[in-house]
Design brief:
This is O-acyltransferase. This protein is mainly α. It is built from 17 helices and no strands. Helix 6 packs antiparallel against helix 8, helix 12 packs across helix 17 and helix 16 runs antiparallel to helix 17. The longest helix is centred in the last third of the chain and has 38 residues. The N terminus is likely disordered.
Length: 501
Amino acid sequence: MATTQQVPESEAATAIATGTSRWDLVRRSLVRRRPSAGGLFEDSSLQPESPVDSVARNDGEGDKDRQEVDGNDNANRDRSAGKFVSRPSCPAHRRVKESPLSSDKIFQQSHAGLLNLCIVVLVAVNSRLIIENLIKYGWLIKYGFWFSSKSLRDWPLFMCCLTLAIFPLVAFMVEKCAQQKQISEPVVISLHIIITTASVLYPVLVILRCDSAFLSGVTLMLFACIVWLKLVSYAHTNSDLRALNELTEKGEALPNNLDMEYSYDVSFKSLAYFMVAPTLCYQPSYPRTASIRKGWVFRQVVKLIIFTGVMGFIIEQYINPIVQNSQHPLKGNLLYAIERVLKLSVPNLYVWLCMFYCFFHLWLNILAEILQFGDREFYKDWWNAQTVEEPVHKWMLRHLYFPCLRNGIPKSGAILIAFLVSAVFHELCIAVPCHMFKLWAFIGIMFQVPLVLITNYLQNKFSNSMVGNMVFWFIFSILGQPMCVLLYYHDLMNRNNGGID
């Protein structure tokens, strides 16, 4: 049984003389007793159990009158405890603390309130800009923005997109022959190089030979690049599985750190699923979800339609007037060019963020839900990146960066190769639909190589800070993309007008 509250001898003697009960003495002692600084009762539900409660709980044979007294005691004790809350003598400063906005504390707490403030400010500012733009230019979105009779002339690009399925089929036949050991490994590698190269060159030739719309050309080139990346992953993964399978057939022990989760088995079903799955990294099987959430898919489709409309509105209502009223940034007045770039940076950033959200979040999640694809980590928190030193995409790490390191290429060389491949494909996706090769996209991607040195230096100099992240956002949103948009637009206009700016 728990011990009861100790009552002073003088009070005990008084109780004997006056006939006061032991329970009243204990209650008075609790009321008079001043709690310690660390034990003030901010919440009555968090009060420690008193001796009265302990005795009353263990004395299960007490009569009904005593239970009523105990209930009254608890109520009185709750009221008396409130008298000691936040007393003037209670210490207000107990330990060393940092200010919430100090550099050591700011990234260790929630910023939900500041995020809500930013959203309110953005809504207010952009609402004013929308009204001002409508007053100045009127409604600029014309009929036929999404579809027009000119789009019917792009049917060769549509047919080319459909025939891209031939290349995965040929790659499967090559892998099937390799599994049956009908062709040697060097022949397999050579055939895969021919197949992947043709999967990119074929759409390039079709676009260059047709007078197609820019949007149609970009769409076809994106599909072609995705097919190329998937075919490289398919060939590379099967080659590695084939090499490991040969080692096990010879009875050689594999390294302990090598986890063989899949056996070497060339299956058309696995290839077909891989070609439509929202991933660029091939493996014979993937984690799958149990069911398809139809209501969830419908909500994501509605969001996709809304944000696509927002992108179209910003492009037609804001970006087009700014670009059309500008001069070539490398041929005009410097201050005027800076003003155009700064004015273009905000709507261009909005379009890029909407495009990222629509494709990498909404569309890939919709596709994953329909195919019951389990791994939904299509991107990481790249917006918090403090450096741009290493490639973050799984395909780049799996099939380019780490293979370079395993073959003795230094880390800096592997990073340079990764940026080089990325720059080539960015240039193809923009230059080919524009029917001109100015290498602005290529230069923009390769400019990130010295940015690696800058961000690494700043991060090492100012440890535990986001200086590198701020430099990344400044280059990305203000200097990089708006400048490329102006350069490509004016070069395209010069080409269409016969070199007249």
